[in-house]
RNA sequence: GGCGCCAUCGCCAAGCGGUAAGGCAGAGGACUGCAAAUCCUUUAUCCCCGGUUCGAUUCCGGGUGGCGCCUCCA
């Protein structure tokens, strides 16, 4: 049974109860990449948010059909291809492969469909013809333009007024400056397909209208994308789809906030401060990125800076280490009774763990508030650690901490965060950070052995000197009850 | 200029009518041979000015500041 939830709708600018076209099912379309370069952490933000959203809906019993397109025919692709002397489609498909590599490395689910413009020409031609037939589009010199003034609701999503858009040049035979291309007549050296109006290629917006309808029907439940797509892209999609199909296009518009640089501006190629996914993932586990994106509400701008990933990793490590502590607890028996015996801190973890599912759902069902959910998780982590400080916790605390471990498993299933086995994660952190620091495990083990020998003889000063050497190389030594352990300094 | 969003502790960030979650960083304490980790303690007149209300960070109006879009953008 699908659980109800609420979602902010850009069209109405309010949080609404979600009511799908078909009970229990969600048709979700998300604008994907224009593939002319590698994916950067800004793109990944949208990818990760919708990936997490899909996981959550499925976790809550919804049957989700998730479509995310590739725009592989576009001005920017053509320009880039001309620069490097490559066939535009070949270039686009090269970057689709790269995108898949990045997406897989980030731990993203594949959408159910990933349509490409180049494979959707038929649908695009059909929709364009429909728009001409219905008097919403006109042909000029082999190009087809959408006539904005034929659609009264134009501008409703973005709050733009058609009158004000007219100031733009009515170039290339457009009747109005606000009109936009559905089909562009072929120019020499550009990819082109035959059409009733002559050879050409699709305009920028028509693809999404066509691809969304062909996979999800005339009315889709949720359409997602970055906030920067609201105008003109999504506005134009509405115009095309509603005029062409005569049906409401989208029930809920879900826009994610953009990644911003510490300077306040969004990340962009023109600013020259772009971090690619593969670079980010070289030094940090994929889970780091997921936590980084989820720590903010999805509609807020997300600040990026040099400390963003290190800080996210510090947070994540805290979570994983708390889970490791809980996992190490043994014992058996009735949790309730045991908690009473072990004291208030035991009772606290037990209760927090048990209350967690309801809190998680409350946060996520209300406009997908991952930030709030994360706050709750950290409280749980602290409760575990506090309890773990008790002498008897490790031997007997297992049952008390079982609901907390279940809570972590729940988070993993519902959001993809904490989905990695604890040991794997902690190991990956070491491997990646060590590689970044240029130090090997063998070197560390050797130093540790040296220090242990000195400690055994209580030659503290010398032992501390060895520790100091390691510390200088960003290795932190930890003497625990179970022996000597070490961590890589974060940051 | 037009449209929209936002302003909460040093930094990041929830909350959105009943005097403020969480994280990072800092300080002090417990623990430790000393550390680290962990735990405890500790830091908020919620941008300003009006208004509505018994009561506002939360609602309304006006400022100020920031950002996004209006040309390609996740």
The count of DSSP E runs of length 2 or more, i.e. the number of strands, is 14
CATH architecture of the largest domain: 3-Layer(aba) Sandwich
Q: Give the percentage of residues in beta strands.
A: 15-25%
User: Looking across the biggest beta sheet, what order are the strands in?
Assistant: 4-3-9-10
Low-confidence stretches: none
> What is the overall silhouette?
elongated
Number of helices: 18
Biggest beta sheet attributes = 4 strands, parallel
Spell out the CATH superfamily of the largest domain: HUPs
Number of domains: 3
| Helicity range | 40-55%
Look at the structure and give the CATH class of the largest domain.
Alpha Beta
Class from helix and strand fractions: alpha/beta
The oligomerization state is single chain
Average pLDDT over all residues: 93
Alpha-carbon Rg, integer: 27 Å
- Might you state the CATH topology name of the largest domain? Rossmann fold
Termini separation? 44 Å
Kindly describe this structure.
The protein is an alpha/beta fold and 491 residues long. It contains 18 helices and 14 strands. It has helices at 41-59, 75-84, 88-105, 121-133, 162-165, 206-216, 230-245, 277-283, 286-294, 308-327, 335-342, 344-365, 370-388, 393-396, 398-415, 422-437, 441-456, 460-472, and strands spanning 6-9, 14-17, 25-34, 63-71, 137-140, 143-146, 180-185, 200-202, 220-226, 250-256, 259-261, 302-304, 475-480, 483-488. It has a four-stranded parallel sheet, sandwiched between helices. Strand 13 and strand 14 form a beta hairpin. Helix 2 crosses helix 3 (88-105). The longest helix has 22 residues, at 344-365. The chain is elongated. The two termini are 44 Å apart. The model has no long low-confidence stretch (mean pLDDT 93). It binds one RNA strand of 74 nucleotides through strand 3, helix 1, strand 9, helix 7 and helix 10.
């Amino acid at each position: 049974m699908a659980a109800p939830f609420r979602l902010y709708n850009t069209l109405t600018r309010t949080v609404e109860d979600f009511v799908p076209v078909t009970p229990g099912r969600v048709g979700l379309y998300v604008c994907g990449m224009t593939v002319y370069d590698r994916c950067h952490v800004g793109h990944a933000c949208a990818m990760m948010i919708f990936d997490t959203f899909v996981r959550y809906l499925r976790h809550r019993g919804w049957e989700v059909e998730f479509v995310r397109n590739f725009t592989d025919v576009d001005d920017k692709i053509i320009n880039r291809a001309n620069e490097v002397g490559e066939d535009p489609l070949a270039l686009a498909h090269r970057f689709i492969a790269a995108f898949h590599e990045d997406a897989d490395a980030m731990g993203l689910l594949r959408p159910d469909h990933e349509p490409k413009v180049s494979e959707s020409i038929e649908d695009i031609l059909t929709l364009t013809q429909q728009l001409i037939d219905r008097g919403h589009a006109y042909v000029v010199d082999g190009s087809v333009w959408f006539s904005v003034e034929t659609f009264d609701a134009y501008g409703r999503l973005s709050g733009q007024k058609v009158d004000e858009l007219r100031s733009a040049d009515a170039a290339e035979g457009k009747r109005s400056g606000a009109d936009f291309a559905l089909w562009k007549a072929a120019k020499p050296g550009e990819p082109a397909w035959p059409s009733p109006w002559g050879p050409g290629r699709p305009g920028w917006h028509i693809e999404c209208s066509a691809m969304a309808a062909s996979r999800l029907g005339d009315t889709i439940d949720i359409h997602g994308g970055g906030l920067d797509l609201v105008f003109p892209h999504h506005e134009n999609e509405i115009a095309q789809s509603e005029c062409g199909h005569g049906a409401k296009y989208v029930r809920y518009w879900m826009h994610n906030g953009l990644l911003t640089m510490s300077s306040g501006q969004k990340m962009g190629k023109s600013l020259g401060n772009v971090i690619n996914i593969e670079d980010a993932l070289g030094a940090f586990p994929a889970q780091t990125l997921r936590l980084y994106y989820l720590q903010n509400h999805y509609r807020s701008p997300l600040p990026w800076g040099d400390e963003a990933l290190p800080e996210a990793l510090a947070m994540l490590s805290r979570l994983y280490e708390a889970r490791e502590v809980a996992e190490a607890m043994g014992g058996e028996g009735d949790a309730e009774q045991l908690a009473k015996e072990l004291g208030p801190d035991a009772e606290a973890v037990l209760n927090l763990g048990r209350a967690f599912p309801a809190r998680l759902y409350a946060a996520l069902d209300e406009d997908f508030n991952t930030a709030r959910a994360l706050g709750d998780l950290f409280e749980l982590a602290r409760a575990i650690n506090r309890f773990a400080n008790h002498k008897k916790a490790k031997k007997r605390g297992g049952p008390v901490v079982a609901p907390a471990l279940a809570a972590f498993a729940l988070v993993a299933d519902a959001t993809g965060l904490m989905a990695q086995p604890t040991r794997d994660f902690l190991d990956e952190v070491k491997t990646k950070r060590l590689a970044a620091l240029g130090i090997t495990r063998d070197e560390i083990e050797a130093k540790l052995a040296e220090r242990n020998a000195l400690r055994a003889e209580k030659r503290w000063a010398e032992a501390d000197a060895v520790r100091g050497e390691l510390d200088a190389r960003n290795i932190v030594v930890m003497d625990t009850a179970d022996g000597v352990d070490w961590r890589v300094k974060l940051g």
